[in-house]
Amino acid sequence: MKAARNAGRPPPPKFFEIEEKTKPWMAFFISAFYELSTERPASFGPGPIPWSKIIDFGRHYGYSGVNLEVFKDVIRKMDAHYLKQAAEKTKEPIKK
Q1: Is residue 79 part of a domain?
Q2: CA-closest candidate to residue 28, choices 80, 63, 64
Q3: Could you read off the pLDDT of 35-55 as tens digits, one per residue?
Q4: Beta-carbon neighbour count of residue 20 at 10 Å?
Q5: Based on the structure, what is the number of domains in the chain?
């Protein structure tokens, strides 16, 4: 995505390739996901983004009540998809 390139970040996973169709609210969730991904624990692979970090981020941007729950749910869905892709990638055989 253009935003990732401009920020000097690696390109997002393929399921985020919606650059031309991205609505402002989508861009916020994608940006939030990238920022929150820096908070994930990593040991033998990436772990889920901590719940507390998602809530803190949402509150920082003024979310509360139902809106905060929706924000949390969207980030959790994105994170689950990311973690699934990461797990599948580690199962791929090493190419010689």
Answers
A1: yes
A2: 63
A3: 999 998 877 778 999 999 999
A4: 7
A5: 1
